[in-house]
Amino acid sequence: MQKRQTSVRQVGECVGSVGSVEALQSLVGRWRKHTQTPTRLPAPMFRLRQTWLDLLQLLSVSPPPRPPLSISALPAELLLAVFASLADDDAAALRACTLVCSEWRALAQPRLFHEIVLSTADMRKSLQFQQFMLSSPTIRAAVRAVTVHFPDLDSWAPDRRRAANLMADVLELLPRPERLRLYGARFSDYRIKWSRLSNHLKNSIRTLLHRPSMTTLLIDGWVLDVNHPEFNTIFADASHSLTSISLLDISDGIWGVHEVPAVPSRRLALDKLTVTNTFSKDVKFIEWLSRPESIFDLEQLTSLHVVESRDDASVSLLTSLIGPSLEHLEVNISYTPQDSSIGLSTCTGLRSLSLSFGVFYTELYYSSLPWICATLDTLSPHNALSSLSLSLYITHPRNTNARVFPPPPVGRFNYERWARLGAVLRNPKFAGVGEVRVQLVHHGIDARGYSQMAAGRMGEVGERVRWRFLRDDSPDVEDATPT
Length: 483
Hints:
It comes from Ephemerocybe angulata. It holds the Pfam family F-box-like. This protein is an alpha/beta fold and about 475 residues long. It has a domain of about 140 residues. About 35% of the residues lie in helices and about 15% in strands. Strands 1-2-3-4-5-7-9-10-11-12-13-14 form a 12-stranded parallel beta sheet. A two-stranded parallel sheet has the order 6-8. Helix 5 runs antiparallel to helix 6. The termini are far apart. The N terminus and C terminus are likely disordered.
């Protein structure tokens, strides 16, 4: 036994002198080769050989295996970058990512709720979704855009009122919303009215407008049946980041009380404004927005969009108030007298002008081109206009079936108005307009042939026109490829 221990100690000293496992393995290999000879070893040498073999077996134990690489082990920063690269409307890809593993689900699922819609159309689903939102703080923190659809007030049964209160709970708890859209039924005897909403719902909307992240508000189809002071109160605590507002068809009840408030100590400076200009109450609403007592400050507005306009004077009031800061103007015109126009003389900073005309105008019978020319004439010689877009109707109403009534020859129509437009655009003050885009909404006529005739009468300006064609009865059917 003592000899056995001595041999083991000697082996240990030998290992220490070798200095590394690799050198030891090489030494053992040479020893094995030597021991394969048929020479019979003495007993001490056999014991030494066995000790070396035992030591080699101990040293040859493989290290613990590395953990297998897993897709769930990717860094969160990398996963967030991957999810951010997906298109916002690619919900199917994001849903697939939530099924990979729990780590992916925790990071991908909130992105599915960047935009949410709250509605009471389907009560069971509405209540389930709103309860889910109330119990999911992580999901609520991811919401960036909220769309709320309200039914007619006449159909608000008790369960709908409960759903409306849950809506208010959800709105009040959203920490970082950026866009809020409130929709109601435009054409109904029971339209949504501000005065009939619960205080809880009103306060939740005000809370949302107060969030520092809020930038955009759209109200479409509601009736703000309030007086001027109450109108100002709705937006009095709104965040200064709220710079884009669209108010469509809201003015039916705002003129019930004619109280004029004092000039607000704090006004919201808007960057973008969209308003309806259809009825007389809309005109009065625009006049109110232009006054210093309004909560909105329009003097630094850069983008103005007027929808369904029927009153040029109110639009001119806005353009004169805004003046040089206005850069983008879009007007959708339903009707305007032939001898009228919009004044643009103060809009020296205007860069893009877009004018579109409703079905009342058809260039074949009641042309909008004289109005366009009169409006362009009001521009200052020192302007920044670089983009002009026109959308015009050339519908031929007596030709509804081309198989029975073939399209009339395009040469029979009068193109003198197009010649006048070409003469106006040749004015040196329009030298900065590189391209004129004209969209022809047509039916019952050869629109491309008509555009060729019009371009020919416009002279050299016609070469800079980019034409686009849409059908007024099915605009998604016909190709809209520019020519």
